[in-house]
């Protein structure tokens, strides 16, 4: 493929007291600055979570007139979807420089609610809202319970995802839990129960934060300051919005998105040096690893024991500390891309995966509703 | 158990389903063309695409727990944890989200047989919920 990521950046993270558009502006201007570009170069804009007219609003705010925008609202996976659409738009000549961005101030604005939001005209408002599920936590909890029941896995095995994420966060100075010390399996199991079998430590953080990714043609990327991070493949799948549509909630659309991405890239899971897999909940990682083909169905719980996904493990995963211990601004997908690109450029300091040449970023949105996989690689 | 939140108002696709709850009948949409069953009611069969052959059958109210969780923190006022949220697979084949009404929420397990009961709503509609039905173990 002929498109590359040339600039990446985070906004301020954590508890910022800043506005959504202010955080967006930080991330975008920082990402453009690091690759020697400016807002005047931007003719493509993809974002969500700003307002009903997200990309339109952001374009106005930044004073740009894009010839291509995308505001696909697909939760945390939207940003991996945006990479695919951006690559297609650049290859088709509709635009030349795309910014993909997101920011949220949900922690400082206290805008997150446990019950989520049911739009009154949707079937879920009639048939699901009355039952008092936490949204999305109870759906992931049901998936976790079904997984543990089906395969005889344990909460301790599930907790390893959170324990590993914390190990990575201890190596990332900007991680929300950087100063929190290690997390033990007992800490995870002993945290406040939210929706069985998931405790608050099985659930991602609620923080402010944002990120931006700049893409352009590979040809142009080679003239810019940062080593190009080449888009090698992508795929996506959208499976449901209702909690009752999917027959088996332990099997996700990541199987479809992953297969498409690997096929397009001509790669297999064995080629992946570092994986950024959306960890909205601990269970999300197990289900995604299986669906993406890193191991068989029912095997992920034992697959990740013995430090496989921790620093120094054979499958370094969520090396920023992930949504569980680094930052989770509500839609984490853009920050998966930021970390994947930095790993491929060798910029990650204490948490750098030596010699990483292929990175996977896999986004999940809603209640395991939307899935999008992107494979990135160094320029060879 | 728990006071439930009010479901949103029916639309033209779901009116018959909610009306039936007033008479204590649980309907499942069934396609006379392909045999597919679906919930909630729609204007199209997701099995074959027909818009002409959808009909309703009445559920026996028997099913089993497909997945479940005990909610320990209330998402809204009027809800009193702990309570069970579950996916119930009806014998007719479709899955409903529901509550399992029980004094022992932590005992509810995947595969448990359950049977329909109703929760009265302020507007006269009824909300289908389920209770353990160990004698129905089949």
Helix-strand layout with pairing:
The complex is a heterodimer of chains A (380) and B (138).
Chain A lengths: L2 E8 L9 H15 L9 E4 L6 H9 L5 E3 L7 H15 L5 E7 L1 H4 L13 H5 L9 H15 L3 H15 L15 H6 L2 E3 L2 E2 L9 E9 H4 L7 E10 L15 H12 L8 E4 L4 H11 L7 H4 L18 H4 L7 H13 L12 E8 L4 E9 L2
Parallel strand pairs in A: 2-3, 2-4, 9-10
Antiparallel strand pairs in A: 1-7, 1-8, 4-7, 5-6, 8-11, 10-11
Chain B lengths: L14 H8 L4 E5 L5 E2 L15 E5 L3 E10 L11 E8 L4 E6 L12 E8 L5 E7 L6
Antiparallel strand pairs in B: 1-2, 1-3, 4-5, 4-7, 5-6, 7-8
Beta-strand content estimate of chain A:
15-25%
Oligomer state of the chains in this structure: heterodimer
Question: Which strand order spans the largest sheet of chain A, edge to edge or round the barrel?
Answer: 3-2-4-7-1-8-11-10-9
Strand count of chain A: 11
Q: Which geometry of chain A do the CA atoms define? A: globular
Count, helices of chain A: 14
Please compute the radius of gyration of chain A using only Cα atoms. 19 Å
* Largest pleated sheet of chain A: 9 strands, mixed
Which segments of chain A are poorly predicted (pLDDT under 50) over 5 or more consecutive residues? none
Average pLDDT level of chain B: 95
End-to-end distance of chain B: 27 Å
Specify the helix fraction band of chain A. 25-40%
The two chains with the largest interface, and their residue counts, are:
A-B, 40 and 40 residues
Number of helical regions of chain B: 1
The helix-strand sequence of chain B is HEEEEEEEE
Radius of gyration of chain B: 16 Å
Secondary-structure element pattern of chain A, one letter each? EHEHEHEHHHHHEEEHEHEHHHHEE
Q: Uncertain runs of chain B with pLDDT below 50, 5 residues or more?
A: none
Q: How does the overall form of chain B come out from the CA principal axes?
A: globular
């Amino acid at each position: 493929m002929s498109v590359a990521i040339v600039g990446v950046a985070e906004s301020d993270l954590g508890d910022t007291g800043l506005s959504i558009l202010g955080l967006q502006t930080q991330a975008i201007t920082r990402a453009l600055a690091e690759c020697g570009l400016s807002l005047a170069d931007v003719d493509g804009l993809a974002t969500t979570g700003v307002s009903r007219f997200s990309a339109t609003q952001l374009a106005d705010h930044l004073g740009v007139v894009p010839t291509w925008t995308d505001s696909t609202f697909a939760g945390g996976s939207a940003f991996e979807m945006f990479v695919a659409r951006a690559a297609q738009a650049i290859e088709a000549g509709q635009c030349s420089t795309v910014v993909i961005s997101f920011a949220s101030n949900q922690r400082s604005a206290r805008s997150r609610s446990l019950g989520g939001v049911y739009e009154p005209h949707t079937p879920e408002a009639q048939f699901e809202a009355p039952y008092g599920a936490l949204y999305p936590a109870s759906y992931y909890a049901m998936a976790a319970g079904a997984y543990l029941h089906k395969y005889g896995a344990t909460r301790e095995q599930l907790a390893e995802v959170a324990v590993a994420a914390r190990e990575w966060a201890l190596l990332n100075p900007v991680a929300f839990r950087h100063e929190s010390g290690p997390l033990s399996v007992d800490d995870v199991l002993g945290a406040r129960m939210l929706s069985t079998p998931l405790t608050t430590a099985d659930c991602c953080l609620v923080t402010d934060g944002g990120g931006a990714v700049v893409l352009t043609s590979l040809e142009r990327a080679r003239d810019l300051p940062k080593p190009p991070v080449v888009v090698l493949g992508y795929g996506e799948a959208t499976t449901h919005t209702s909690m009752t549509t999917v027959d088996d909630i332990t099997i996700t659309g990541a199987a479809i998105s992953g297969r498409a991405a690997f096929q397009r890239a001509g790669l297999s899971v064995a080629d992946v040096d570092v994986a950024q897999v959306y960890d909205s909940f601990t269970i999300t990682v197990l289900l995604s690893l299986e669906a993406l083909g890193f191991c068989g169905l029912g095997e992920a719980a034992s697959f990740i024991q013995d430090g496989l996904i921790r620093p120094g493990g054979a499958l370094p995963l969520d090396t920023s500390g992930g949504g569980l211990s680094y930052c989770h601004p509500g839609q984490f997908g853009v920050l998966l891309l930021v970390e994947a690109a930095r790993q491929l450029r060798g910029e990650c300091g204490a948490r750098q995966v030596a010699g990483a040449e292929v990175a996977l970023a896999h986004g999940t949105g809603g209640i395991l509703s939307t899935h999008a996989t992107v494979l990135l690689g160094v320029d060879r | 158990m728990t006071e439930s939140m009010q479901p949103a108002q029916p639309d033209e696709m779901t009116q018959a389903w909610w009306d039936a709850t007033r008479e204590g009948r649980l309907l499942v949409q069934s396609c006379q063309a392909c045999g597919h069953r679906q919930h909630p009611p729609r204007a199209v069969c997701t099995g074959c695409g027909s818009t002409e052959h959808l009909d309703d059958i009445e559920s026996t109210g028997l099913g089993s727990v497909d997945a479940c969780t005990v909610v320990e923190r209330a998402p809204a006022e009027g809800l009193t944890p702990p309570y069970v949220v579950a996916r119930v697979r009806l014998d007719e084949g479709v899955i409903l989200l529901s509550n399992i009404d029980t004094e022992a929420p932590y005992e509810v397990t995947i595969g448990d047989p359950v049977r329909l009961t109703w929760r009265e709503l302020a507007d006269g509609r009824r909300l289908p919920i389920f209770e353990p039905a160990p004698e129905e173990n089949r």
